[in-house]
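Bug report (template v2)

What were you trying to do?
Predict the complex of my protein with magnesium ion.

What happened?
Run completed; filing so the output is reviewed.

Input:
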Amino acid sequence: MREKYSKEFINQRKKSWYFTYGLIAILIVIVFVVSFRRPPDYVVKDEISLGTHVRVVVSSKYSGKILDSIFREFRRIDSKFNPYNPNSKIYRINHSNGNWVEVDDEILFILKKSLYYADLTGGAFDFTLGRLIKLWGFDSENSEKRIPSSDEINETLKHIGYDKVEIDGNKVRLHDGVWLDFGAIVKGYAIDRAVQIAKKIDPKATGFVDAGGDIGIIGPKFGGADWIVGIRNPRGESQQDTIGVIYLKEGAVATSGDYERFFISNGKRYYHIFNPKTGYPAKGVISATVVANSCLDADALATAIFNLGIEYSLTYIPRYGGQAFIVDENQKIHKTKGFLYFEQVH
Ligand code: AMP
Ligand code: MG
């Protein structure tokens, strides 16, 4: 009796030892795998496109293909949408002398999005400023920038207004000689396309696309962490001088600033975002950052804030699907309530 009991006891002991050894072995394997699994390598590529510095940071088995496809897409969008390049589609629409022009689905998409934002913001965002942009010399880096006379501005204002754009099916007609300029929205669109392309090639890809500070997230850092995006100090010496940070795992952020394209005359700064009612650069805001799901939306809203004003923007930008960080002309910072969420690690 006694012996039988001891054998059982010994077997029991043996089993529990095997179990413990097994558990230790599994734990050692887990610790080994976790500590020796290298974080994915990120590949970085830079190019100038859409008049700005574009950087793509990506980690994927197909990084090379993703980078090539994204930069090809940027070049394609740049040459199609630059309204001041005689070879672009938009240039041809602008010079169609008030006739109906057939447009493709992509142009129709951008047109409709732009009309939506023009309507939503009561014209604070207006994509028909082409002639005004050219008048001031902001159509190209190489154009001479100057303050036009008030007569020239008043004359140009006659050729501005999103109500002068007529759409019928896939045809568009521009009245009163307006010129389209999608400069405030197309960079965001290109970033959205780039993110879509990366995800389509490799749904597991992670990284981000940065075009002059406008950013679209491909996927979280190392597959799970936030990317930290700095908000540039609009009066800082360099891009590295920041006045805020945003933590993002997905979605997009866009910033518009009076430091991006400007000239100084008699100590006064004249820059590239205009008040469509006056024909002069917008007043009161020097930088606007918007976080939104898509970069196209963030881009359009960031530009609109310059003409919407601070109080209005703080109330309405969240209703339009964005959260905003705004710097006024006295360099005071204003944030929408929901912006706080993006200032924390998740
Ligand atoms: P962003 O850098 O996104 O703010 O876009 C600025 C560009 O949008 C300018 O270079 C112009 O081409 C165009 N733009 C300027 N003012 C406006 C405006 N009020 N609404 C829409 N587009 C504008
Ligand atoms: Mg914009």
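What did the reviewer find?
Residues 1-38 form one domain. The longest helix spans residues 2-36.
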